[in-house]
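look at this fold:
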Amino acid sequence: MHPNSLTEIANKYSTDKGTIGPSNRWNTHNYTDVYEAYLERFRKDTLNFLEIGLGVAGSNWRSDIVHGKNTGGASIKMWYEYFENSKIFGLDINECAYLDNDRIKTFVADQGDVKQLDDFYKKSGVVEFDCIIDDGSHRPDHQQISFNYFFKKLKPGGLYFIEDLLANGYGDDAKGRMSSSKVLNTRSIIKQYVKTGELLEPNALMDKEYLDEHIDFVRFHVPRVGMKYVLGRSLRHPIGRVWYHKQNTEKLCVIRKK
């Protein structure tokens, strides 16, 4: 009997990382195909795995995904089932100790506050994490502060994923709780770094020398169709519709440490 795929497990718990979300009014990302390509070979290993942002209801952050079939903490439940021998650490700004069990341990922290991140790290008892996923607030300043802190806590060869890269930073004219004008959006900063070795400013990735020395590779992914264009009928497109991705619409990146 073959074990379930990560997508099948995601759909079981109604996390939008898979292809079936909490309800038919919630878009899904299909990140699980990308994740499994990187992580399947570690499935039976004993890992220290960290997820930032657990999608749980609480007064500190509104979590709209908690509705329908999703009762909260869907993705950490998915990781628990997928990595059956690993310790799963969860970090969220809302308290969710009800998710804790024999291998899951959750902590309350604001991912944009370095002191709170440091408090979590000391309490976790982990020296180096094998894999870290940022599915937190999606704010670019929070993504960059968290990466700047936790990449140093990642073991050599470890993987750091940042989900939901958006045009939500300085100069993007974005509004709302997932945007910030303090820094440029994370996607543009990392893409420019990969291309030129320089960090665009303003940013919260302050330790460039560490990045230069320790980043092995960066990969961007667009697992979900970004735009749909309807065209007139033609021999090439007989149904009158084509799907393709616009430039700079990548929603997920993975960074491996040397």
The CA atoms of residues 72 and 231 lie 40 Å apart. The first helix runs from residue 6 to 13.
